[in-house]
Specification:
It is a single chain. The protein is α/β, with parallel strands linked by helices. 22% of the residues lie in helices and 21% in strands. It is built from eight helices and 13 strands. The strands form two sheets. The chain has a seven-stranded mixed β-sheet with strand order 6-5-4-3-2-1-13. The chain has a six-stranded mixed β-sheet with strand order 7-8-9-10-11-12. The protein starts with 6 loop residues before the first strand and ends with a strand. 46% of the residues are buried.
Length: 292
């Protein structure tokens, strides 16, 4: 069992649609229909405080499986039922599990939920907040989601198709290490410019990051033939590793997450996965545990 300090479990590594992806009959999705070990949940994280409190980041439709996965990673029986929920933005895979906290499923009332003002306003307009006690988070200001949890959350604004509400990455600052959770943003140029950084390394250094879970939605810009990828902007993994080059010295760990069902990084033995690994970077793994 992991130690009782602050820890984070990666509860999903896929883009909003998960794997298998609705409406898709590609070989990867069909293989996941046949073999459940190949399924990947939409991206989410679970943080355990030093006091044993549990804090969910993102609320996906795979909530039931993710609560069990979290408990298994912590070495405990049953399921890990969160004491708080935090949200990066309102796109479907990050919020479509919120209803499961309501009367029809878990019957929660007054569960603390942390998000930006625009996210709270948008979810309120959808009638999604009845199980929660929402708290507006200020960008770039650290806070403890509950007293005595032993870590802080810091919401970092990033550009990402903010047609309905804004988008944030979240830094989890534990007593020993800090982790950046960046599942979605439009492109590195805009993100770095917004924070006055000249490179990914500089930005992560400015934030004091030891581990970064970053947007790896698409391997390259040719991944979705017939789709206008300018309408679904994300930095490609090929761009990210071109900017990063080889991992050296005191570079933080970087793990690619939020992988679309089309992304060859989902296959651990692929040439693309080997290319990432050979440079010293990693592909996030569902159930992976990080001590903070």
């Amino acid at each position: 069992m992991p130690d009782a300090g602050v820890s984070l479990v990666l509860l999903g590594t896929a883009q909003d649609g998960g794997v298998p992806h609705a409406g898709c009959s590609c070989p990867r999705c069909m293989a996941a229909h046949a073999d459940h070990s190949l399924r990947r949940h939409p991206v989410a994280c679970g943080v355990r405080g030093s006091d044993g409190s549990l804090h969910l980041i993102e609320a996906s439709r795979a909530l039931s499986d993710q609560m069990r996965l979290w408990a298994e990673a912590l070495g405990v029986d049953g399921v890990a039922r969160p004491d708080t929920v935090s949200l990066t933005h309102v796109h479907c895979g990050h919020v479509d599990g919120l209803g499961q906290f309501g009367d029809e499923v878990m019957g929660c009332s007054g569960l603390p939920l942390f998000a930006s003002r625009s996210v709270i306003e948008e979810l309120g307009s959808r009638g999604s907040l009845s199980p929660f006690s929402p708290s507006e988070v200020a960008s770039m200001e650290g806070f403890q989601p509950c007293t005595g949890c032993g870590f802080e959350l810091e919401f970092v604004p990033v550009p990402h198709r903010d047609e309905l509400a804004d988008t944030h990455a979240i830094v989890i600052r534990g007593p020993a290490r800090s982790l950046l959770f960046l599942p979605d943003h439009d492109d590195w140029g805009q993100t770095l410019a917004r924070h006055g950084a000249n490179s990914i390394r500089q930005w992560l250094s400015d934030l004091g990051i030891d581990v970064a879970l970053v947007d790896g939605s698409f391997w390259d810009s040719d991944e979705l033939p017939g789709r206008d990828m300018s309408k679904i902007p994300h930095p490609t993994v090929t761009e990210s590793i071109a900017r990063l080059g080889e991992r050296v010295g005191e570079d933080p760990e970087i793990h690619f997450i939020h992988l679309n069902h089309s992304n060859p990084l989902l296959e651990s033995g692929s040439n693309q996965a080997d290319e990432v690994s050979d440079l010293g970077w990693q592909v996030g793994k569902q159930g992976q545990h990080f001590a903070l």
